[in-house]
Amino acid sequence: LAGTVPEEPRCTVERADASLTYSLFLQRFAFSRPVILGGVTDNSALCTREKRLAAFGPFPVRLSTANTYSYRKVDVPFQEYVEHLLKPQDPARLGSDTLYFFGDNNFTEWGPLFQRYVPPPFRIPGTSPAYSFGIAGSGSGVPFHWHGPGFSEVIFGRKRWFLYPPDKTPHFHPNETTLAWLQHTYPTLPPAQRPLECTLRPGEVLYFPDRWWHATLNLDTSVFISTFLG
Predict the structure, then answer these.
(1) Which of 171, 211, 186 has its CA nearest to residue 10?
(2) Which SUPFAM superfamilies match (predicted)?
(3) Sign of torsion, CA 96 100 102 104?
(4) 30, 31, 34: which is closest to 15 by C-alpha?
(5) Domains of the chain (ranges, CATH numbers)
(6) Which tens digit of pLDDT belongs to each residue from 171-218?
(7) CA-CA-CA-CA dihedral for 157, 148, 213, 71, to nearest 10
Protein backbone atom coordinates (compact mmCIF):
# COMPACT_ATOMS: atom_id res chain seq x y z
CA LEU A 1 0.00 0.00 0.00
CA ALA A 2 3.03 2.30 -0.18
CA GLY A 3 2.17 5.59 -1.83
CA THR A 4 -1.56 5.38 -1.14
CA VAL A 5 -1.34 8.67 0.75
CA PRO A 6 0.89 11.31 -0.90
CA GLU A 7 3.92 12.51 1.04
CA GLU A 8 4.66 16.17 1.71
CA PRO A 9 8.41 16.64 1.10
CA ARG A 10 8.57 19.78 3.23
CA CYS A 11 9.76 19.34 6.84
CA THR A 12 9.51 22.22 9.32
CA VAL A 13 10.60 20.30 12.43
CA GLU A 14 14.26 20.67 13.37
CA ARG A 15 16.43 17.56 12.98
CA ALA A 16 19.36 16.32 15.05
CA ASP A 17 21.63 13.28 14.87
CA ALA A 18 23.55 11.11 17.32
CA SER A 19 25.96 13.96 18.02
CA LEU A 20 23.27 15.76 20.05
CA THR A 21 24.32 15.65 23.71
CA TYR A 22 21.94 15.23 26.63
CA SER A 23 22.72 18.71 27.93
CA LEU A 24 21.95 20.27 24.54
CA PHE A 25 18.74 18.24 24.29
CA LEU A 26 17.61 19.64 27.65
CA GLN A 27 18.67 23.16 26.74
CA ARG A 28 17.24 23.37 23.22
CA PHE A 29 14.30 20.98 23.00
CA ALA A 30 13.11 19.25 26.16
CA PHE A 31 10.85 22.06 27.38
CA SER A 32 10.42 24.22 24.31
CA ARG A 33 10.05 22.56 20.88
CA PRO A 34 9.95 19.21 19.05
CA VAL A 35 12.92 17.63 17.33
CA ILE A 36 13.45 14.64 15.03
CA LEU A 37 16.33 12.40 16.10
CA GLY A 38 18.12 10.24 13.54
CA GLY A 39 20.66 7.51 14.15
CA VAL A 40 20.08 7.26 17.91
CA THR A 41 18.40 3.81 17.94
CA ASP A 42 18.30 0.62 15.89
CA ASN A 43 15.09 -1.38 16.26
CA SER A 44 14.73 -2.65 12.70
CA ALA A 45 14.63 -6.29 13.88
CA LEU A 46 11.40 -5.70 15.80
CA CYS A 47 9.14 -5.34 12.76
CA THR A 48 9.33 -8.88 11.35
CA ARG A 49 5.68 -9.80 10.72
CA GLU A 50 6.03 -13.57 11.03
CA LYS A 51 7.94 -13.41 14.32
CA ARG A 52 5.46 -10.98 15.87
CA LEU A 53 2.49 -13.13 14.87
CA ALA A 54 4.20 -16.28 16.18
CA ALA A 55 5.01 -14.64 19.50
CA PHE A 56 1.87 -12.56 20.10
CA GLY A 57 -0.82 -13.85 17.68
CA PRO A 58 -3.29 -15.17 20.27
CA PHE A 59 -2.78 -12.29 22.71
CA PRO A 60 -5.58 -9.71 22.87
CA VAL A 61 -4.90 -6.15 21.77
CA ARG A 62 -7.09 -3.23 22.73
CA LEU A 63 -8.26 -1.13 19.80
CA SER A 64 -9.36 2.47 20.35
CA THR A 65 -11.42 4.77 18.20
CA ALA A 66 -9.24 7.00 16.03
CA ASN A 67 -10.63 10.26 17.35
CA THR A 68 -9.36 12.83 19.83
CA TYR A 69 -10.91 11.25 22.94
CA SER A 70 -10.72 7.53 22.05
CA TYR A 71 -13.44 6.51 24.49
CA ARG A 72 -14.54 3.30 22.78
CA LYS A 73 -12.34 0.23 23.29
CA VAL A 74 -12.56 -3.17 21.57
CA ASP A 75 -10.40 -6.22 22.40
CA VAL A 76 -9.44 -8.64 19.58
CA PRO A 77 -6.62 -11.19 19.15
CA PHE A 78 -3.51 -9.62 17.67
CA GLN A 79 -3.56 -12.06 14.73
CA GLU A 80 -7.16 -11.14 13.87
CA TYR A 81 -6.25 -7.46 13.88
CA VAL A 82 -3.22 -7.93 11.61
CA GLU A 83 -4.90 -10.30 9.15
CA HIS A 84 -8.43 -8.87 8.96
CA LEU A 85 -8.69 -5.37 10.47
CA LEU A 86 -5.41 -3.75 9.39
CA LYS A 87 -6.74 -1.87 6.36
CA PRO A 88 -6.38 1.56 4.75
CA GLN A 89 -8.49 4.33 6.24
CA ASP A 90 -11.93 4.73 4.66
CA PRO A 91 -12.08 8.45 3.74
CA ALA A 92 -15.83 8.52 4.34
CA ARG A 93 -15.65 7.05 7.86
CA LEU A 94 -15.43 9.22 10.98
CA GLY A 95 -12.58 8.73 13.42
CA SER A 96 -15.14 7.91 16.11
CA ASP A 97 -16.20 4.92 13.95
CA THR A 98 -12.66 3.77 13.07
CA LEU A 99 -10.77 1.27 15.24
CA TYR A 100 -7.03 1.73 15.57
CA PHE A 101 -4.27 -0.11 17.47
CA PHE A 102 -1.91 2.53 18.78
CA GLY A 103 -0.64 1.46 22.14
CA ASP A 104 -3.16 0.15 24.66
CA ASN A 105 -0.77 -2.67 25.55
CA ASN A 106 -0.84 -5.29 28.30
CA PHE A 107 2.67 -4.86 29.67
CA THR A 108 2.87 -8.40 31.04
CA GLU A 109 2.09 -9.99 27.67
CA TRP A 110 4.04 -7.49 25.55
CA GLY A 111 6.96 -7.25 27.98
CA PRO A 112 9.32 -9.39 25.84
CA LEU A 113 8.92 -6.95 22.94
CA PHE A 114 9.59 -3.87 25.07
CA GLN A 115 12.61 -5.55 26.67
CA ARG A 116 14.19 -5.80 23.21
CA TYR A 117 13.35 -2.22 22.31
CA VAL A 118 16.28 0.22 22.30
CA PRO A 119 14.75 3.51 23.53
CA PRO A 120 15.96 7.01 22.71
CA PRO A 121 18.90 7.98 24.94
CA PHE A 122 17.26 11.06 26.51
CA ARG A 123 14.89 11.56 29.45
CA ILE A 124 13.19 14.48 31.17
CA PRO A 125 14.31 14.87 34.81
CA GLY A 126 11.70 13.60 37.24
CA THR A 127 9.93 11.35 34.71
CA SER A 128 9.92 7.63 33.98
CA PRO A 129 9.21 5.97 30.61
CA ALA A 130 6.15 3.94 29.59
CA TYR A 131 6.24 2.18 26.22
CA SER A 132 3.45 1.86 23.68
CA PHE A 133 3.43 -0.37 20.57
CA GLY A 134 1.14 0.14 17.59
CA ILE A 135 0.42 -0.97 14.01
CA ALA A 136 -1.85 0.97 11.68
CA GLY A 137 -3.00 1.00 8.09
CA SER A 138 -2.33 3.53 5.36
CA GLY A 139 -4.30 6.75 5.81
CA SER A 140 -5.07 6.08 9.47
CA GLY A 141 -3.98 8.24 12.36
CA VAL A 142 -5.09 10.15 15.43
CA PRO A 143 -6.46 13.70 15.15
CA PHE A 144 -5.17 16.56 17.28
CA HIS A 145 -4.76 15.92 21.00
CA TRP A 146 -2.18 16.63 23.69
CA HIS A 147 -0.66 14.99 26.76
CA GLY A 148 2.71 14.85 28.50
CA PRO A 149 6.10 14.74 26.74
CA GLY A 150 7.33 11.74 24.83
CA PHE A 151 9.11 10.12 21.91
CA SER A 152 7.62 8.24 18.95
CA GLU A 153 9.76 6.03 16.73
CA VAL A 154 8.79 4.65 13.34
CA ILE A 155 9.94 1.03 13.03
CA PHE A 156 8.38 0.33 9.63
CA GLY A 157 6.57 2.48 7.07
CA ARG A 158 6.21 6.27 7.08
CA LYS A 159 4.31 8.47 9.51
CA ARG A 160 3.47 12.15 9.02
CA TRP A 161 3.19 14.42 12.06
CA PHE A 162 1.49 17.80 12.56
CA LEU A 163 2.29 19.83 15.70
CA TYR A 164 1.17 23.07 17.35
CA PRO A 165 2.55 24.66 20.56
CA PRO A 166 0.31 24.64 23.66
CA ASP A 167 -0.77 28.26 23.17
CA LYS A 168 -1.98 27.72 19.59
CA THR A 169 -5.07 25.48 19.53
CA PRO A 170 -5.61 24.00 16.05
CA HIS A 171 -8.94 24.13 14.26
CA PHE A 172 -10.29 20.58 13.95
CA HIS A 173 -13.30 18.39 14.67
CA PRO A 174 -12.51 15.79 17.39
CA ASN A 175 -14.37 12.99 15.54
CA GLU A 176 -12.90 13.75 12.11
CA THR A 177 -9.98 11.64 10.93
CA THR A 178 -6.58 13.18 10.31
CA LEU A 179 -6.98 12.20 6.66
CA ALA A 180 -10.22 14.20 6.39
CA TRP A 181 -8.60 17.17 8.19
CA LEU A 182 -5.68 17.05 5.74
CA GLN A 183 -8.01 16.96 2.75
CA HIS A 184 -10.52 19.60 3.87
CA THR A 185 -9.06 21.92 6.53
CA TYR A 186 -5.32 21.94 5.89
CA PRO A 187 -5.54 23.46 2.36
CA THR A 188 -7.50 26.45 3.75
CA LEU A 189 -4.88 27.39 6.34
CA PRO A 190 -2.80 30.53 5.68
CA PRO A 191 0.95 29.88 5.95
CA ALA A 192 1.12 31.52 9.38
CA GLN A 193 -1.53 29.13 10.72
CA ARG A 194 -0.02 25.90 9.44
CA PRO A 195 1.46 23.43 11.95
CA LEU A 196 5.01 22.28 12.24
CA GLU A 197 5.12 19.07 10.24
CA CYS A 198 7.35 16.32 8.96
CA THR A 199 7.27 12.73 7.70
CA LEU A 200 9.23 10.20 9.73
CA ARG A 201 10.84 7.15 8.18
CA PRO A 202 12.07 3.93 9.82
CA GLY A 203 14.64 4.57 12.51
CA GLU A 204 13.64 8.20 13.06
CA VAL A 205 12.31 9.37 16.41
CA LEU A 206 10.17 12.43 17.10
CA TYR A 207 10.35 14.12 20.49
CA PHE A 208 7.35 16.29 21.45
CA PRO A 209 7.33 18.47 24.60
CA ASP A 210 4.63 18.60 27.26
CA ARG A 211 1.15 19.75 26.13
CA TRP A 212 2.07 20.21 22.47
CA TRP A 213 -0.88 19.53 20.17
CA HIS A 214 -0.14 16.79 17.64
CA ALA A 215 -1.91 14.71 15.00
CA THR A 216 -0.57 11.73 13.07
CA LEU A 217 -1.14 10.23 9.64
CA ASN A 218 0.31 6.89 8.55
CA LEU A 219 1.34 7.12 4.91
CA ASP A 220 1.87 3.36 4.68
CA THR A 221 1.04 0.41 6.88
CA SER A 222 3.21 1.48 9.82
CA VAL A 223 4.76 -0.04 12.94
CA PHE A 224 5.72 2.35 15.71
CA ILE A 225 6.73 2.47 19.38
CA SER A 226 6.20 5.48 21.59
CA THR A 227 7.84 6.34 24.90
CA PHE A 228 5.64 8.43 27.18
CA LEU A 229 7.43 10.31 29.94
CA GLY A 230 5.24 10.54 33.02
Answers:
(1) 186
(2) Clavaminate synthase-like
(3) positive
(4) 34
(5) 15-229 (2.60.120.650)
(6) 999 999 999 999 999 999 999 999 999 999 999 999 999 999 999 999
(7) 80
